[in-house]
Design a protein that fits this description.
Number of helices: 7
Distance between the termini: 40 Å
Strand content: 15-25%
Radius of gyration: 18 Å
Number of strands: 5
Helix content: 25-40%
């Protein structure tokens, strides 16, 4: 986009392209425990310069060879890793497909790097990067360590840190029976992130006003 005006997306996040992620796992150790489900929402600005979900990609994922499966985690999520109806794919195939969509969206907006957005982002980032490393994928479009954490943002903007409570406070419907599905949690997290960004704009927080200079 060198011969075009910078997009609103590239201006708003300093060239970063936010991708909202949720990962369901078979434990808490990113190095040993399986990734079982991944969803990612790609965002866009609408005609009124409000951030919204453009598309969401969802993958059921096969446990990697030798992966640990904690029964307590499986009971919590209700995921049967070996149910053939899941139509699960490998970590490599899921991430390869997702990266393709992310790079295409980034290019269209003139952004130079994707940034992971998640609720309790350190958890999802750890599993995401571990799966990427196991897959041997070299063209990872995501920043290696910077994230946007909606837990922190919601605590600041709404006074709530639990996803369900933050969504309800923001007027976003939340069904606890649907929670802990990567697809559902990703889209609620994306709606929450969009709400916070858009609310900040409506309050006059962005674009930043340039202070008037006193005349000598």
């Amino acid at each position: 986009m060198s011969d075009q005006a910078p997009s609103l997306m590239s201006q708003r996040f300093r060239g970063y392209f936010p991708i909202v992620i949720d990962i369901e796992t078979a434990g808490f150790n990113a190095q040993t425990d399986a990734v079982l489900e991944l969803a990612a929402s790609i965002l866009q600005f609408d005609d009124n310069d409000n951030l919204e979900i453009a598309q969401t990609h969802h993958y059921h994922i096969e446990p990697f060879e030798g992966a640990n499966l904690e029964q307590a985690s499986l009971d919590f999520t209700g995921i049967d890793p070996y149910n053939p109806l899941r139509a699960a794919v490998s970590e490599h195939d899921a991430l390869h497909d997702l990266f393709k969509h992310v790079r295409k969206a980034m290019k269209a907006q003139g952004c130079h790097r994707a940034i992971l957005v998640a609720h309790n982002a350190a958890f999802d980032q750890g599993f995401f990067k571990a799966a990427t490393a196991r897959s041997g994928l070299k063209r990872d479009p995501f920043h290696p360590f910077v994230t946007f954490d909606t837990t922190t943002l919601a605590g600041l903007a709404i006074g709530q840190t639990v996803l369900a409570k933050a969504c309800i406070e923001a007027g976003i419907p939340f069904d606890n029976k649907e929670a802990h599905s990567a697809l559902y949690d990703t889209e609620r997290t994306a709606e929450l992130f969009c709400y916070i960004v858009n609310k900040w704009k409506d309050l006059g927080g962005w674009p930043m006003a340039v202070p008037a200079q006193d005349e000598e």
